[in-house]
Specification:
Layout: E1 2-5, H1 6-12, H2 16-31, E2 35-36, E3 42-43, E4 51-59, E5 65-73, E6 85-93, E7 99-104, H3 106-124, E8 134-139, H4 143-156, E9 160-166, E10 184-186, H5 190-194, E11 199-202, E12 220-222, E13 239-242, H6 245-248, H7 254-262, E14 269-271, H8 277-282, E15 289-292, H9 297-314, E16 318-319
Parallel strand pairs: 1-7, 8-9, 8-11, 9-10, 11-12, 12-15, 13-14, 13-15
Antiparallel strand pairs: 1-16, 2-4, 3-4, 4-5, 5-6, 6-7
Helix pairs in contact: 2-3, 2-9, 3-4, 3-9
């Protein structure tokens, strides 16, 4: 069995196109029903903001791996100078259940999160009539936001005209990739980042929606943190994407609020398993496209399996005795 920490994952690097390919393959297996994934339970105690989530899954096809992610989110940690999220992933050999690897690495979880966004962004880039230059806006610039900016920089490249970042805690340009710094403006409000953004990303720890303005027509909204928009967003778009309705329509997400307050139904959303290039093209060009990912264990296991196999080829990781 191999052990991995963040430094070991970092030594392998991130190819964001390869990460998106991993998610695309897993989404195809979702569509083909070659997976097993129970609804993930939330463990809560003490502060109601805190949660620890168990995410088991089996992914079929060539991935053919089972496993579980155990992820803790404690927003109050930030006030103590501690990391908000802690994550461990265990991989098991599908045929025998034999443990293959342990990832004591929040990074692998973050790469999965940004990899799912990369998969959706690539589909979006297949649409006709997209601008030649893009304003990118982002609210929240912690570890997930930083990974998203790296991903966006690789996928959009010289299409980026400007990047506007906002975080309640402030942002140091030293935390921005050097190649993107000249394009970055640190905003004084979320409205500055949101206004006229062709691509807008939420990576906050917000507990309730506050974004109540119309998005730019035809833009892509990656609602990664899931609790930043008010249900009034439905006044401006009907193009609502989800990773999985059953997972995302709960736990106080924007999707659950749209469902309870505005009557949004599963049939009015498009799951990632159905997000073909043709389906993305068919969405109205005059509307923003909004993606709402709760986080699916099948993607975590697929990404961890990819890194496990990559690490084997480069002899990265610590081999533990049986």
């Amino acid at each position: 069995m191999r052990y991995f920490n963040d430094e070991m994952i970092d030594s392998l690097g991130v190819d964001w196109h390869a990460a998106a390919d991993v998610i695309d393959e897993a989404a195809q297996l979702l569509a083909a029903k070659e997976f097993a994934q129970p609804i993930k339970p939330y463990l809560r105690y003490g502060d109601s903001r805190n949660r620890i989530i168990a995410m088991p899954a089996y992914v079929g096809g060539e991935v053919d791996t089972a496993g579980i992610k155990w992820v803790a989110s404690f927003p109050g940690n930030l006030e103590q100078g501690l990391q908000r999220a802690h994550s461990m992933t265990i991989l098991n050999e599908a045929a025998t259940g034999r443990p293959l690897a342990v990832f004591n690495a929040a990074r692998i979880s973050g790469i999965r999160t940004a990899g799912v966004s990369a998969s959706v962004l690539r589909r979006y880039l297949s649409r006709d009539g997209l601008p030649d230059s893009w304003k990118v806006g982002m609210v929240g610039y912690g570890p997930i936001g930083r990974l998203h900016l790296r991903m966006i920089g690789e996928l959009l490249g010289d299409r980026i005209s400007s990047i506007v970042l906002y975080d309640l805690r402030g942002i140091s340009l030293e935390d921005v990739p050097e190649a993107l710094r000249d394009q970055v403006t640190v905003a004084a409000s979320w409205q500055e980042a949101y206004k006229d953004a062709d691509l807008f990303v939420t990576c906050t720890v917000s507990s309730e929606g506050y974004i109540d303005l119309a998005p730019k027509a035809g833009s892509l909204l990656l609602n990664v943190s899931l609790r930043d928009f008010t249900p009034d967003i439905l006044d401006h778009t009907s193009s609502i994407l989800v990773d999985d309705w059953e997972e995302v329509c709960r736990e106080g997400t924007d999707i659950e609020r749209m469902h309870l307050e505005r009557g949004l139904q599963e049939s009015e959303t498009l799951p990632i398993s159905d997000l073909t290039t043709e389906a993305m093209q068919a969405l109205p060009s005059t509307e923003a496209v909004m993606f709402n990912p709760m986080g699916m264990a099948v993607f975590d296991i697929a990404m961890a399996a990819y890194y496990y196999r990559l690490a084997e080829t480069q002899d990265v990781g610590l081999t533990l005795p049986d």
